[in-house]
């Protein structure tokens, strides 16, 4: 057996040994391991590990003798095919109930458990695709293997439990592009209000896996069709036309497709779903049923995403004004852990993010004067780091159109805070322009457990999923991010801005994150949470305006 290469990581050493057929395999593992390797009895395996060491060991249920040898000389990878994992080992472990198959193809298949892996293998083999590596369960460290040069050029398909995901999966997904169709299983709503919550990195990785296709139904047949599908240029997609005199097989496929449209009417209403896509390689009537129908929806989303990436190729990066940036730095440095709305907007303005024109008043006459300068109508809000649900407390008054109305509203806001939140510290009353109607977005940035930062966003019209993207963003990623947020919003008005304005907001928000929040040797990053809620998209040169904002930074006592 070749000695491990000390210049590479243990993970890559294990992968090299596995692909090269240099694993030590217990004779009782049966069909759970398929590939080249030296098969040994229990006693011989323990002796070999103890005397010579090993890079990869495959065993079912290690005996006490073998366990002692493995603890004395831990391999780079221990594959356990039995139902339980041994304790007290420092090796990287694949298991329990692991299955590993090393073959001669150019496809990596990943399953959460043996049944799912078997279904994936059957679907891809039926499609004429030969795997290179098939394995389960899908564990967190697998992303290191997928990014390794030893698997360069391989396509990847499978399903991964969301608990196994982390930011490393997001980075790999960004480089793999359309060569991967990995479905995250068990995605729940991320806790964007809780910086460093474990769900944040997991969901950011899940959304990175879906960045081109959107969510994919976890059927082996869907994955096989989608990974093998060819995107088409604009104008060459499905037409829905059924030619007269078609073959019996084609007529059967058309009938099954129509039945799928009837059974799944919401999906059938999507543009491009009238007939099978020419880029889907249908194989027999069964392929034209649910699997092909669901694969086509993901393929059409992938085509739209690829078009957005091409369109964003020449988009410029945002230009930041140095004077405004210096002001933002000064405010953040002098502010407390939780910035007020006004302080937060000053920081945002430093990076060119559109915010409401506003000023903080300390008297009713001052509020009226500011309102006349800003222009009616205006909104009044209490300024206090201690208030969260201002509208419920009566600390927000809308639609003020005269100076007299502003004076009365000022007195109302102050009185409501004193009565309903007597312990809150009131720093004044904010006078801000009132923005016309438009689609509203909740977006921002939040720190992850890893020290990295993810941007998040969701449309507030209806119940839409929060979308996360790992920082940094380039113009193409910002465009995909914007598309993912507004894709499910129905009946948008013609005067709503396009994706470019929203993508520009995300690029500027990402610039803020990278300037203040990036991890370094001395700091995990300054920003814990940037919360813009809502941002209203509107017609005109501004494109959007941030109505409310809150920034939370790490405490100064932590070394800032």
TrEMBL record:
Coiled-coil region(s): 295-345
Keywords from the named record: ATP-binding, Coiled coil, Ligase, Nucleotide-binding
Highest taxon above the source species: Bacteria
Domain ATP-grasp stretches: 345-382
Pfam families: ATP-grasp_5
Example GO molecular function: ligase activity
Keyword Hydrolase attached: no
InterPro entries the record matches: Acyl-CoA_Synth/Transferase (IPR051538), ATP-grasp (IPR011761), ATP_grasp_subdomain_1 (IPR013815)
Classification via PROSITE patterns: ATP_GRASP
Family annotation (PANTHER family): 3-HYDROXYPROPIONATE--COA LIGASE [ADP-FORMING], ACETATE--COA LIGASE [ADP-FORMING]
Name of the protein described by the UniProt record: Acetate--CoA ligase family protein
Organism name: Nannocystis bainbridge
């Amino acid at each position: 057996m070749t000695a491990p290469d000390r210049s590479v990581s243990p993970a890559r050493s294990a992968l090299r040994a596995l692909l090269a057929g240099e694993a030590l395999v217990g004779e009782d593992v049966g069909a759970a391991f398929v590939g080249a390797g030296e098969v040994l009895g229990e006693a011989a395996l323990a002796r070999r590990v103890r005397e010579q060491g090993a890079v990869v060991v495959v065993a079912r249920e290690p005996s006490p003798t073998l366990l002692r040898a493995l603890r004395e000389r831990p391999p780079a990878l221990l594959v356990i095919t039995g139902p339980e994992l041994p304790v007290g080992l420092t090796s990287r472990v694949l298991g329990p109930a692991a299955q590993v198959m090393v073959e001669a193809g150019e496809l990596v298949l990943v399953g959460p458990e043996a049944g799912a892996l078997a279904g994936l293998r059957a679907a891809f083999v039926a499609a004429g695709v030969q795997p290179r590596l098939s394995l389960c369960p899908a564990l967190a460290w697998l992303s290191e293997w997928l990014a390794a040069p030893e698997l360069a050029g391989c396509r990847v398909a499978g399903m991964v439990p969301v608990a196994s995901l982390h930011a490393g999966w997001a980075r790999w997904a960004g480089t793999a592009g359309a060569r991967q169709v990995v479905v995250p299983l068990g995605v729940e709503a991320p806790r964007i209000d809780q910086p460093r919550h474990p769900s944040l990195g997991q969901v950011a990785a899940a959304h990175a896996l879906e960045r081109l296709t959107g969510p994919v139904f976890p059927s082996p047949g869907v994955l096989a069709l989608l990974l093998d599908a060819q995107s088409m240029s604009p104008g060459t997609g499905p037409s829905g036309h059924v030619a007269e005199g078609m073959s019996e097989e084609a007529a059967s496929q058309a009938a099954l497709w129509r039945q799928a449209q009837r059974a799944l009417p919401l999906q059938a209403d999507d543009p491009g779903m009238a007939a099978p896509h020419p880029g889907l390689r249908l194989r027999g009537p069964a392929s034209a049923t649910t699997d092909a129908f669901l694969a086509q929806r993901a393929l059409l989303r992938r085509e739209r995403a690829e078009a957005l990436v091409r369109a964003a190729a020449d988009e410029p990066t945002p230009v930041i004004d140095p004077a405004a940036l210096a002001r933002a730095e000064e405010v953040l440095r002098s502010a407390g852990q939780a910035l007020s709305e006004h302080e937060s907007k000053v920081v945002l303005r430093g990076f060119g993010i559109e915010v409401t024109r506003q000023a903080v008043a300390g008297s009713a006459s001052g509020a009226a004067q500011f309102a006349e300068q800003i222009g009616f109508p205006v909104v009044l809000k209490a300024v206090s780091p201690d208030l969260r649900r201002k509208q419920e407390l009566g600390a927000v008054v809308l639609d003020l159109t005269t100076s007299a109305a502003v004076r009365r509203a000022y007195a109302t806001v102050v009185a409501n805070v004193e009565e309903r939140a007597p312990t809150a510290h009131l720093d004044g009353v904010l006078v801000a322009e009132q923005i016309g109607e438009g689609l509203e977005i909740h977006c921002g940035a939040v720190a992850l457990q890893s020290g990295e930062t993810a941007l998040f966003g969701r449309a507030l019209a209806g119940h839409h999923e929060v979308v996360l993207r790992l920082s940094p963003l380039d113009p193409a990623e910002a465009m995909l991010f914007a598309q993912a947020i507004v894709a499910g919003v129905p009946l948008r008005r013609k005067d709503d801005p396009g994706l470019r304005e929203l993508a520009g907001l995300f690029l500027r928000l990402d610039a803020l994150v990278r300037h203040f929040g990036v991890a370094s040797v001395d700091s995990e990053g300054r920003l814990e949470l940037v919360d813009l809620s809502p941002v209203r998209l509107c017609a005109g040169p501004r494109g959007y305006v941030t109505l409310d904002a809150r920034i939370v930074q790490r405490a100064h006592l932590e070394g800032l």
